[in-house]
Amino acid sequence: xxxxxxxxxxxxxxxxxxxxxxxxxxxxxxxxxxxxxxxxxxxxxxxxxxxxxxxxxxxxxxxxxxxxxxxxxxxxxxxxxxxxxxxxxxxxxxxxxxxxxxxxxxxxxxxxxxxxxxxxxxxxxxxxxxxxxxxxxxxxxxxxxxxxxxxxxxxxxxxxxxxxxxxxxxxxxxxxxxxxxxxxxxxxxxxxxxxxxxxxxxxxxxxxxxxxxxxxxxxxxxxxxxxxxxxxxxxxxxxxxxxxxxxxxxxxxxxxxxxxxxxxxxxxxxxxxxxxxxxxxxxxxxxxxxxxxxxxxxxxxxxxxxxxxxxxxxxxxxxxxxxxxxxxx
Length: 329
Hints:
Blueprint: E1 6-10, H1 15-26, E2 30-35, H2 42-47, E3 50-53, H3 59-66, E4 71-74, H4 86-106, E5 111-115, H5 140-157, E6 162-167, E7 169-171, H6 179-187, E8 199-204, H7 205-217, E9 225-228, E10 233-235, H8 236-247, H9 259-272, H10 283-287, H11 298-304, H12 312-325
Helix pairs in contact: 1-7, 3-4, 4-5, 6-8, 8-12
């Protein structure tokens, strides 16, 4: 284990940031978490983390949190929510990254790590894709995340000691984003729109946080971009079958066509977005059944010694066990 460090963390009240905070504290580090006034900080309080009120859009708050820190992990982001204007995505996912860069330079932080997304590659053309594959962002979330990544990469080129990671679809005990999928499969109705032939690549939370820490500590990480994902990927149909098997229900088979659903989603968003309403159907949810996500983690293995340990079947089993133990499933 490395010597104790003072580490700034954004996004600490979220799933990934919270898991990272827990692991860092267990390793003996002091965590300084930048948290919004409305954030749920109970788990961070229990860990003994130092809390700085503010968010990534506030340059002064970011600077205050970064002062005296050895490492910064920037996990904060705004994900896809139709109620937000494009300017909010830009403020958090792009302009906020500049605040992190400025604070790291001002306070001479030893290492800064930025969380991007595999979504910057969009609907991939080469299987598996890698860090050098073309960018093809498909929505405001992916476009602003790419803009933030490029800002950070430019800062690294100018001398910032840092690294970038792009995680796969993050899951595991504590995650609620994929809960709806698990619930639908348990109820026996999870339509495999388009046949479920698209590829899906997961990142188990414990493996991911190990990789994030390697980005913050390994000397080979400086100046590099890494894809952090599991060693396995498969079709959506196969993933749904694994979940069904663990739940003891029949695997989904109903495979309706995708085009009518996509049309309905676009109409729904066109009506709701100008009114500031959250559509009952998003194009991003439809794209979940269409776009393939399959990546190569060889670079992280080669340069960092990254070794994901969790296979999909065991990861699904542990996730279901957590859902059931906490009354979600």
